[in-house]
């Protein structure tokens, strides 16, 4: 079979040389990344719950420069197609969209294209595993997530924001759903990738985890990675997710404290 | 009015109902819906169900008691109490069908005067009435009632819902490590790869799943941010030809999922050198388009599609291009030989299906197994053991060990499949060089009936045949002679003795009367003791063994 060219190693070497020449050193010799973080450090985490009064639950989350807004309506009666009613559980309806101003080039079609639909399906799948839908038969829970600024790790930030919004809505879940995107560069896993790191041909793995039981709700990986490195990458992702869960927990408790202080007076 | 209806209903429930009776009762008519009428209807349905359940004989073998409640003019309370509609509902047929395992409640409005909203309301109301019964622990079998209704509504698009029996059977078989077609847990179905007459056309048969991929190329302007790279475009078509569940035109969730997975598997892994597809930087590049058509859906479309796509890409040859200054000439295949694409590696996807919350795992699920699975894990790898893509779908919770195990299995399978693809490509190349006829028509086997013979399905029979051998050895020889009739008592005749009952029933006492038929008039005396008649010898087991050995 003559047309399968073994140019893999040459191509990889060429690419690394190009990167070094262009100054895009994703991991320096001292162990610092492009934005000065270490390999296992997460980006700066800022979150606010209950940002909208109209919605049942809402949350705004910033992870580094990626900003996401999540809104939850429900559980309420199933609207639209009556055929979607499940007799024993709630139906979860997710919609993912990116604002047109969220990327460097203006996005022509914020929702309805294949990537957004795929992302919506993934979000739906993640939350169907985590939310206790058996408690609300014949009803529907809507989760809407919008990316206001995209700087890498879109899926993970969406999942974290949606978790906070679901908790704000008071819908019971099995555990926090924490997500993180990790990449593999120079034999080292990098936690919480930013846009420059994601686009550089780095193999990235997005993982949604329920930390207490160590159960993976969603696992998604693109780009080539040798099988031997897979375990290390998943381990790094799980550790990063556990870190995210601690932060989320802190945010929720702080919000509850703030909310209860006026009633205490 | 309400009390009348209530009494009528109660009366009906206490009377024993025998099968096949048609009774009709009607309540009086139109009032504004009030809370009183709601309770009436509820009680009526309640008592009907009660009565019908009580009427069933506990040990009866009747398979279906069909009772039609005819001409019910019931006022169904609308769930939305703010709708004060003056409804006069005619001819509501309530068909309650009781079967041994499956029970379902169908509500069919007959008269056209019943509006759409009211019918859907009564439908949902009746369905709501059913789960209310779940609270009574004595009637667990009514639970499937509502589930069937809802399932009947959900499964649109021509696909029949899977019955509970089939679902349970499949799950149980998987628990015992048995699959429908006799495969082992990690086995793939028989795979066959054939090519069409054009370069870039490929058919893949994975068991009964059939998929066709066609690659074509044309010169277009490149993308602005990548001026010296060619463009790859992937498209999966799910036509209704493949399965009645696919609707034409509508982009269903499955279609989006498959498309995205194929894109991620082939494009993001950079299996093709796109820079070699550039003709004039910034102006003209090759756009390679891969169209995958599903021809028959028997499970595991993703694997078949990925194999078809990468094989078609390996098989494809693009026309040669010549550049002279500003002119670009595309040579036809007759003028210059077409050039194959430069492919770095071949990513192949392997699908794992999970059952019973991740306890059981199957590779290459067929269509039935896909219907009962909890979720799917797709791992795309190449033969150099590099993982190109992983995607979990379906809402299952995985553990890290499961993912690692699946990746190990996938690497083994991928190397086997890559072998097969290389061999198929080799064969095709040889056939074309030798000038033989190749193409889709030639790849179809000529099915002439020369003998009435079916393929032996590979089903694991070892334990079944052992058991069969045991039974054959332990069985007694049946009576050879036909004996003359005997009259033990006037009016009773007896010819011979019955065969000894060896089904292993332990509760039988000697000489008891066993009721084996529906009707109560017949009584069959079934004597357990085998009495030899007319000096026949009952051979013992050891004697029989001695007789068998020559």
TrEMBL record, chain A:
Gene Ontology molecular-function annotations: RNA binding
UniProt keyword Lipid metabolism, yes or no: no
Recorded GO CC terms: cytoplasmic exosome (RNase complex); nuclear exosome (RNase complex); nucleolus; nucleoplasm
One Pfam entry name: RNase_PH
Keywords: Acetylation, Cytoplasm, Exosome, Nucleus, RNA-binding, rRNA processing
Subcellular location: Cytoplasm; Nucleus, Nucleolus; Nucleus, Nucleoplasm
Keyword Acetylation part of the UniProt annotation: yes
Biological processes, Gene Ontology terms: nuclear mRNA surveillance; poly(A)-dependent snoRNA 3'-end processing; rRNA catabolic process; rRNA processing; U4 snRNA 3'-end processing
InterPro entries reported for this sequence: ExoRNase_PH_dom1, ExoRNase_PH_dom2, ExoRNase_PH_dom2_sf, PNPase/RNase_PH_dom_sf, Ribosomal_Su5_D2-typ_SF, RNase_PH
Domain called Exoribonuclease phosphorolytic: residue spans: 41-172, 175-239
Self-association and partners: Component of the RNA exosome core complex (Exo-9), composed of EXOSC1, EXOSC2, EXOSC3, EXOSC4, EXOSC5, EXOSC6, EXOSC7, EXOSC8 and EXOSC9; within the complex interacts with EXOSC2, EXOSC7 and EXOSC9. The catalytically inactive RNA exosome core complex (Exo-9) associates with the catalytic subunit EXOSC10/RRP6. Exo-9 may associate with DIS3 to form the nucleolar exosome complex, or DIS3L to form the cytoplasmic exosome complex.
Family the entry assigns: Belongs to the RNase PH family.
Official protein name in the record: Exosome complex component RRP41
TrEMBL record, chain B:
Compositional bias (Acidic residues): 505-523
Family under the similarity heading: Belongs to the RNase PH family.
PANTHER family per the UniProt record, alphabetical: EXOSOME COMPLEX COMPONENT RRP45 (PTHR11097:SF14), EXOSOME COMPLEX EXONUCLEASE RIBOSOMAL RNA PROCESSING PROTEIN (PTHR11097)
Places the protein is found: Cytoplasm; Nucleus, Nucleolus
Domain of life: Eukaryota
High-level lineage: Eukaryota, Metazoa, Chordata, Craniata, Vertebrata
CDD domains: RNase_PH_RRP45
Record's compositionally biased regions (Basic and acidic residues): 540-550
Residues annotated as domain Exoribonuclease phosphorolytic: 188-319, 345-411
Matches recorded under InterPro entries: ExoRNase_PH_dom1, ExoRNase_PH_dom2, ExoRNase_PH_dom2_sf, Exosome_comp_Rrp42_subfam, PNPase/RNase_PH_dom_sf, Ribosomal_Su5_D2-typ_SF, Rrp45
Protein name (database record): Exosome complex component RRP45
Keywords: Cytoplasm, Exosome, Nucleus, RNA-binding, rRNA processing
Cited Pfam families: RNase_PH (PF01138), RNase_PH_C (PF03725)
GO BP annotations listed: exonucleolytic trimming to generate mature 3'-end of 5.8S rRNA from tricistronic rRNA transcript (SSU-rRNA, 5.8S rRNA, LSU-rRNA); nuclear mRNA surveillance; nuclear polyadenylation-dependent rRNA catabolic process; rRNA catabolic process; TRAMP-dependent tRNA surveillance pathway; U1 snRNA 3'-end processing; U4 snRNA 3'-end processing; U5 snRNA 3'-end processing
Molecular function as annotated in GO: mRNA 3'-UTR AU-rich region binding
A cellular component annotation (GO) from this entry: nuclear exosome (RNase complex)
Region named Disordered: 505-550
């Amino acid at each position: 079979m003559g047309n399968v060219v073994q140019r893999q190693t040459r191509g990889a070497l060429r690419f690394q040389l190009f990167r070094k020449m262009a100054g895009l050193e994703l991991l320096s010799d001292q162990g610092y990344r492009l934005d000065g973080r270490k390999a296992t450090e997460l980006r700066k985490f800022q979150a606010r719950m209950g940002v909208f009064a109209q919605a049942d639950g809402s949350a705004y989350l910033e992870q580094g420069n990626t900003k996401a807004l999540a809104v939850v309506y429900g559980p309420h009666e199933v609207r639209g197609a009556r055929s979607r009613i499940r007799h024993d559980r709630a139906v979860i309806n997710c919609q993912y969209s990116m604002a047109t101003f969220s990327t460097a080039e203006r996005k022509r079609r914020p929702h309805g294209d294949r990537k957004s639909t795929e992302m919506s399906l993934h979000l739906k799948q993640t939350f169907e595993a985590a939310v206790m839908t058996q408690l609300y038969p014949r009803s529907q829970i809507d989760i809407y997530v919008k990316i206001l600024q995209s700087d890498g790790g879109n899926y993970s930030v969406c999942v974290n924001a949606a978790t906070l919004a679901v908790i704000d809505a008071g819908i019971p879940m099995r555990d926090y759903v924490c997500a993180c995107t990790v990449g593999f560069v120079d034999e080292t896993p990098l936690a919480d990738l930013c846009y420059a790191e994601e686009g550089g041909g780095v193999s990235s793995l997005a993982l949604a985890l329920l930390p207490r039981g160590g159960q993976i709700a969603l696992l998604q990986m693109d780009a080539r990675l040798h099988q031997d490195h897979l375990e290390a990458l998943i381990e790094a992702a799980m550790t990063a997710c556990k870190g995210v869960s601690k932060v989320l927990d802190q945010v929720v408790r702080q919000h509850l404290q703030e909310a209860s202080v006026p009633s205490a007076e | 009015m309400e009390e009348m209806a209530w009494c009528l209903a109660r009366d009906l429930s206490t009377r024993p109902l025998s099968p096949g009776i048609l009774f009709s009762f009607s309540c009086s008519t139109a009032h504004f819906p009030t809370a009183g009428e709601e309770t009436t209807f509820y009680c009526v349905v309640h008592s009907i169900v009660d009565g019908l359940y009580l009427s069933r004989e506990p040990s009866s073998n009747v398979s279906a008691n069909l009772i039609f409640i005819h001409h019910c003019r019931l006022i169904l309370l609308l769930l939305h109490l703010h709708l004060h509609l003056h409804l006069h509902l005619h001819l509501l047929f309530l068909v309650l069908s009781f079967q041994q395992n499956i029970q379902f409640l169908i509500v069919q409005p007959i008269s056209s005067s019943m509006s759409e909203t009211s019918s859907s309301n009564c439908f949902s109301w009746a369905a709501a009435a059913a789960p209310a019964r779940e609270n009574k622990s004595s009637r667990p079998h009514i639970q499937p009632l509502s589930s069937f209704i809802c399932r009947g509504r959900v499964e649109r698009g021509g696909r029949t819902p899977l019955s509970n029996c089939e679902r349970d059977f499949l799950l149980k078989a998987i628990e015992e490590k048995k699959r429908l077609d006799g495969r082992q847990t990690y086995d793939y179905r028989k795979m066959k790869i054939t090519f069409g007459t054009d370069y870039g056309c490929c058919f893949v048969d994975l068991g009964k799943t059939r998929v066709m991929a066609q690659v074509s190329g044309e010169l277009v302007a490149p993308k602005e941010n990548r001026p010296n790279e060619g463009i790859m475009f992937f498209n999966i078509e799910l036509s209704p030809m493949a399965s009645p569940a696919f609707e034409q035109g509508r982009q269903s969730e499955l279609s989006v999922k498959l498309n995205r997975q194929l894109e991620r598997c082939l494009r993001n892994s950079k299996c093709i050198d796109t820079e070699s597809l550039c003709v004039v930087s910034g102006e003209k590049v090759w756009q390679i388009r891969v169209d995958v058509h599903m021809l028959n859906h028997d499970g595991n479309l993703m694997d078949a599609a990925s194999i078809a796509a990468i094989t078609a890409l390996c098989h494809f040859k693009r026309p040669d291009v010549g550049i002279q200054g500003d002119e670009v000439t595309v040579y036809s295949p007759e003028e210059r030989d077409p050039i194959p694409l430069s492919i770095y590696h071949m990513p192949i996807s392997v699908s794992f299906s999970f059952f019973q919350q991740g306890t059981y795992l199957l590779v290459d699920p067929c269509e039935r197994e896909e219907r009962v699975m909890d979720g799917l894990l797709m791992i795309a790898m190449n033969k150099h053991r590099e993982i190109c893509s992983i995607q979990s779908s379906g809402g299952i919770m995985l553990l890290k060990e499961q993912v690692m195990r699946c990746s190990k299995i996938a690497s083994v399978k991928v190397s086997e499949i890559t072998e097969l693809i290389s061999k198929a490509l080799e064969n095709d190349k040889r056939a074309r060089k030798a000038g033989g006829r190749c193409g889709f028509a030639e790849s179809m086997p000529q099915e002439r009936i020369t003998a009435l013979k079916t393929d032996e399905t590979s089903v694991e029979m070892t334990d079944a045949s052992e058991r069969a051998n045991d039974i054959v050895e332990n069985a007694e020889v049946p009576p050879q002679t036909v004996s003359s009739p005997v009259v033990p008592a006037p009016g009773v005749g007896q010819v011979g003795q019955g065969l000894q009952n060896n089904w292993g029933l332990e509760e039988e006492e000697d000489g008891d009367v066993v009721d084996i038929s529906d009707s109560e008039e017949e009584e069959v005396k079934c004597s357990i003791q085998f009495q030899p008649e007319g000096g026949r010898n009952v051979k013992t087991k050891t004697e029989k063994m001695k007789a068998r050995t020559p």
